[in-house]
């Protein structure tokens, strides 16, 4: 059951620095309600940091973030946990609970938030696990017994169980083979097309970025340099996007990126 109607995310002038490093200078971005948006950008530009700020896992320095009319930037700890309970999330380290079995990790939201019986929650977890290519024989294992790619899939299944109204996924297909990548991207597509979930995904998979999500946003140098419908992604003329999407760019942007590597 979906926990509520999906809302749009609106970010304005968000800034975030660490000690002496400015990561996000002035982020302005709208993630439309009930649509999927992919955030792309070079490594270490702050994509993960932005997702963490949005979920209240990192404090911001300035700016505003809203989910519908809810002023995220003004939430206290209780407000943040109420908001987080509305979202399914996946971070790069997967953050599985080591002491819980795989099915219990996947079913965590159902048991702890929705108070579903363990029997029913296990049944639901097995369905989600199958959707990400994890068989029933995995259900009673512990995370340490799984490969990195399998743990990633457990993380995706956990984020998506219970059909949360908001999905925030940091590189859900990293390290997966093309077949699994395809099934996970299809699962994410069904979450928006079928259920109207608001989805924000970070990916390094440029082919997926161009074809699988409704909107594309490009983060570079602390700002969103381009955002819009995927059909409107310019094939040429925007050096930031060209560099990311086509792996080519001319002029200063290329030299600048090369200098950073
Ligand atoms: N807790 C932290 N303390 C200090 N610096 C941090 C912290 N978290 C992230 N950073 C720095 O912020 C910058 C952006 O990191 P982030 O993980 O958001 O990059 P990213 O765009 O997601 O990169 P990638 O695509 O490689 O995963 C990096 O320079 C990183 O070292």
UniProtKB/TrEMBL annotation:
Pfam families hit by this protein: ABC_tran
InterPro entries: AAA+_ATPase, ABC_transporter-like_ATP-bd, ABC_transporter-like_CS, P-loop_NTPase
Alphabetical keyword list: ATP-binding, Nucleotide-binding, Transport
Domain of life: Bacteria
Signal peptide: none
UniProt keyword annotation of Nucleotide-binding present: yes
The keyword Transport appears for this protein: yes
Domain ABC transporter per the UniProt entry, residue ranges: 9-246
One of the record's GO molecular function terms: ATP hydrolysis activity
Protein name, entry field: ATP-binding cassette domain-containing protein
């Amino acid at each position: 059951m979906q926990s509520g109607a999906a809302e749009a995310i609106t970010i304005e002038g968000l800034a975030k620095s660490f000690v002496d490093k400015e990561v996000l200078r002035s982020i302005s971005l709208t993630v439309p309600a009930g649509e999927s948006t992919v955030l792309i950008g070079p490594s270490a530009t702050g994509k993960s940091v932005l997702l963490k700020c949005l979920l209240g896992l990192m404090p911001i320095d300035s700016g505003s973030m809203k989910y519908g009319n809810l002023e995220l930037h003004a939430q206290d700890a209780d407000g943040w946990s109420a908001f987080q309970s509305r979202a399914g999330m996946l971070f790069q380290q997967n953050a599985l609970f080591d002491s819980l079995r795989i099915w219990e990790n996947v079913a965590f939201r159902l048991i702890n938030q929705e108070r579903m019986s363990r029997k029913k929650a296990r049944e639901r977890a097995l369905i989600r696990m199958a959707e990400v290519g994890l068989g029933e024989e995995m259900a009673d294992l512990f995370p340490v017994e799984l490969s990195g790619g399998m743990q990633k899939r457990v993380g995706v299944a956990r984020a998506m169980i219970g059909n949360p109204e908001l999905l925030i996924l940091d590189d859900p297909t990293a390290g997966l083979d093309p077949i699994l990548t395809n099934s996970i991207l299809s699962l994410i597509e069904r979450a928006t097309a079928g259920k109207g979930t608001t989805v924000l995904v970070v990916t390094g998979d440029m082919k997926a970025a161009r074809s699988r999500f409704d909107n594309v946003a490009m983060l570079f140098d602390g700002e969103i340099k381009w955002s819009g419908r995927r059909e409107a992604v310019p094939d040429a003329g925007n050096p930031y996007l060209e560099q990311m999407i086509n792996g080519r760019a001319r002029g200063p942007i290329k030299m600048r990126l090369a200098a950073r590597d």
